[in-house]
Every structure is written in C-alpha cells, then in structure tokens.
C-alpha cells in the first residue's frame, strides 16, 4: 500500500461507504452516478449481473482501452500508455462541435494521460487531469482553494 493514500485507521471509510448490500455501497461511493446517470441512462459492465463488457483492442491496458471507450473504435496504433495525442475524434470532442453545446464541454480525470487520450489541444475543450491547476490565468477564490488543496 502507498502510504500517501493509506492514512491508517480505515474504520471511518468502512462506516461511511460500506454496506452488505452492494447496491447501497455503490450509491454511497458514487451518489451522482447512481442517482442521476443510472436513473436516466444505461450503465453496463457488471459481470455479476451478466453484463459482460470487454474492449476489442488486443492490449488490455489503460490508454488503448480509454481511447476505444471514448472514440468507439479500436486503433491498433494506440498501443502504449505513453502514446502521443490521440489522432481519433472522441465523443466529447464531437459533442463540443455541436452548436447548441459548443463551449460547454469539459472532462475531468485522475490520470495525466487524459490530456492526450482526449487530445485536449485539438478537441478545444478543457481536460482537467491529475494535478492540473484549475482556473487558468485568473482563478477565482474557489479555484485557488482547489489548487491549494491539490498541492497540500
């Protein structure tokens, strides 16, 4: 275990997020996903419920898998976690090009490769990933607080 993410006593975490009912646990862990997205859309991939979802690319690791999910296609050239900016148009980029929602797209991820997977430069929408600062050149007080929290 990485000590950075393991702060000792896990009792609090179990009390806050664990339930013997897996449906209740997942609602506690990701309330927005299960209250809003699941109730208004579809979620696939729970093998225990027969929702077998696999990627089609032969690599079975992060960047190629996320590329496939976000573009809807397998690109055999996308074959490394250190791959350059993705040459394929992704669903968020497509949505950002639609006149009614242009400029209203953003992506947030916990891995700095999302800047490349979603091709932030070409896609022309912000991709906030890993340890990116938020707020640009003129961050608000809240954005400054978020940046400070990230750094400490």
Question: What is the topology?
Answer:
Layout: H1 11-17, H2 22-29, H3 31-40, H4 62-71, H5 91-96, E1 107-109, H6 114-117, H7 120-123, E2 127-129, H8 141-151
Parallel strand pairs: 1-2
Helix pairs in contact: 2-3
Explain this structure.
- This protein has 152 residues and is mostly helical.
- It has two domains: 11-45, no CATH class; 54-152, no CATH class.
- The protein has eight helices and two strands; from the N terminus they run αααααβααβα.
- It has helices at residues 11-17, 22-29, 31-40, 62-71, 91-96, 114-117, 120-123, 141-151, and strands spanning 107-109, 127-129.
- It has a two-stranded parallel ribbon.
- The longest helix has 11 residues, at 141-151.
- The chain is globular and about 45 Å long.
- It starts with 10 loop residues before the first helix and ends with a helix.
- This is Phosphoglyceromutase.
Number of domains as seen in the coordinates? 2
Task: Report the major sheet.
Answer: 2 strands, parallel
Q: How is the quaternary structure best described?
A: single chain
Instruction: List the secondary-structure elements in sequence, H or E.
Output: HHHHHEHHEH
Structural class computed from helices and strand pairing: mainly alpha
Round the Cα radius of gyration to an integer and report it.
18 Å
Helix content: 25-40%
Helical segment count:
8
User: Kindly state the mean pLDDT as a whole number?
Assistant: 91
Envelope shape = globular
Task: Determine the N-to-C terminus distance.
Answer: 20 Å
Q: Flag low-confidence runs.
A: none
Going across the major beta sheet, what is the strand order?
1-2
Into which percentage range does the β-strand content fall? under 5%
What is the strand tally? Answer: 2
